[in-house]
Design a protein that fits this description.
Length: 197
């Protein structure tokens, strides 16, 4: 199962987060343990405030067992992260810069781990850039964010979900790009989500 979120900050999407955890409630009831959720914050350059926000929301408020896959500063190697994939019920891929996320996952060598986790029925949640990764293509602003272009572009993803995706679709500049290029993407505004089986 996959839940795509159109963007937004962790603390502003309590209803979305409540829904995510509701999809894991059977673990709490049937297995009599807390659901285990892993955060992949690479799109935000592994931002510590983002990690702390995730832990507060899913660990403290929603009473799940949380962990993070931290790579950039050498905290974890591939084998350590692979073990985490085998121990959790849900992975949450955070938002930020899509190019950073894509390239960091390439360096980490975890594309196959993500694909295998999805194919065996694990719950993956993607927020903005994290959601883009799962689709065949997405409307991306990463070159704008990096200051190397003023234009949106179509970025390729892992193709686990068919079609084109546009996060932050409430932004008028994205709407204009979609119209000019005759695109028909799946549109999600901030704090909106859609579920795929």
């Amino acid at each position: 199962m996959f839940i795509a979120i159109g963007g937004g900050s962790m603390k502003e999407m309590t209803a979305v987060n409540d829904y995510i955890v509701s999809k894991l409630e059977h673990i709490r009831q049937e297995m009599e343990r807390k659901p285990k959720i892993m955060f992949l914050p690479q799109a935000s350059f592994e931002s510590k405030p983002y990690v702390n926000s995730f832990t507060r929301e899913f660990g403290t408020r929603l009473k799940c067992k949380t962990t993070c896959a931290l790579w950039a500063k050498g905290e974890m190697d591939f084998e350590h992260i692979k073990q985490k994939f085998n121990m959790v019920d849900c992975i949450y891929i955070g938002g930020g810069r899509y190019d950073v996320l894509y390239h960091e996952f390439e360096k980490m060598g975890i594309k196959q781990l993500v694909c295998d986790f999805y194919k065996r029925g694990g719950l993956i949640v993607g927020n903005s850039a994290g959601a883009m990764l799962m689709f065949e293509q997405s409307v991306s602003d990463y070159k704008i964010m990096a200051g190397i272009s003023k234009e949106y572009e179509i970025a390729d993803g892992y193709g686990l979900i068919k079609g084109c995706f546009c996060p932050h679709s409430n932004e008028s500049s994205r709407q204009e790009y979609i119209k000019q290029n005759n695109l028909q993407p799946i549109l999600l505004a901030e704090n909106e989500f859609i579920e795929f089986e």
